[in-house]
Specification:
The protein is an alpha/beta fold and about 375 residues long. It folds into two domains: about 210 residues, Purple Acid Phosphatase, chain A, domain 2, CATH 3.60.21.10; about 140 residues, no CATH class. About 45% of the residues lie in helices and about 15% in strands. The strands form two sheets. It has a five-stranded mixed sheet, covered by helices on one side. A four-stranded mixed sheet has the order 2-1-8-9. Strand 1, helix 1 and strand 2 form a beta-alpha-beta unit. Helix 3 crosses helix 4, helix 10 crosses helix 12 and helix 11 packs antiparallel against helix 12.
Amino acid sequence: MKILLIADIHGNWAALQAVLAAEPDVDQILCLGDLVNYGPRPAECVAWAMKTLTSDWLIQGNHDRAVGMDEDPRSSVPYKALAAATQELSKRVLSTEMKQFLAGLQPLQRFQLDNAICIACHAVPSEPLYEYFPQNSPVTLWESELNGVNYPDFLFVGHTHLPTKTQFHRTLIVNPGSVGQPKDGDPRAAYAIWKDGEVSLRRAEYDVEQTIQAYRGTQLEPHIVEVLAEVLRTGGHLPFDQNPYEQFNAYFQKHPDKLAAIFFLQKLLNNRIGVDTDRMTDAERQQWILNYSRGMTQEVSELTDCVPWKWWASYQKFDKQNARVEIVDLLHFIISLAQVMEITPDELFEAYTKKHRVNLARQESGYTVKDESDNKHI
């Protein structure tokens, strides 16, 4: 018997087709989850799974559940913005039937291959959707996992996007790597073959640029597409690995709009500390308006301290350099507030120019009447 083991397709239809073309003679396909998100063509991948795979040979991944149940996939911090943006794409292009299909999948399956006892899950048996066990995880962690499921002959997992094959006592742990978004430095689609009890890790070349071109028309923001393209071309390198100076230059060279670049860097900065303005509820938006407003109050106080306002203290001097820094700190909060309120750089520019015209008209009238109706069109 020959089994194709695949995982983490992530909407990369071109990569999936390449893997299927490379192994046309398999008897069965085991998919270890995450058909959707990150990639530009999630609907095609889900449609293929619905048509081709039986439910007991298709494992639910954290992104499958997130799209099916409209939940947070709990991605790692560097990937949160990418996951949030592409989940909106998945939700938009998948039919209700497809979402229900993803929601109904099981996160763990037990079965036999010939006489071998097998367990398949997306992450690890004790937490089949979300737990990450890196390659250098302590042996005791795996021993605990395997002991909890009575040491099967094979444990098939995905989630890390890193192809591995490791023997622990009687159990062979196999991670075929990611079809659609490899993270081991090799951009080729990763998969594995189980044949008569032996497992081999394999790769299939595909046209990465075809997948990148497919992002056109997805309505994803250009900077999101640029990061996703970098990940695909390099086999997992995130531009976030660069220092802030390198990040700015890489982005600004391709998008020479200074205001948009500031918004881009602020979003990265906020995401690094776990603040995702793209997925806030109204209650969270209200709370962060308060948080940022309080922060600005403190920055204004620090700006005030740069000016000799203590008339009784002759030692004070005007700290012009630090005053400039405090103004930039205030700008960080202003941009964050704009993002909390879902204001884009273009919308901010448009609103500013409209309000500017209102202010000019008020000045010309001498501010003789307080009437806020002239703001209604902004």
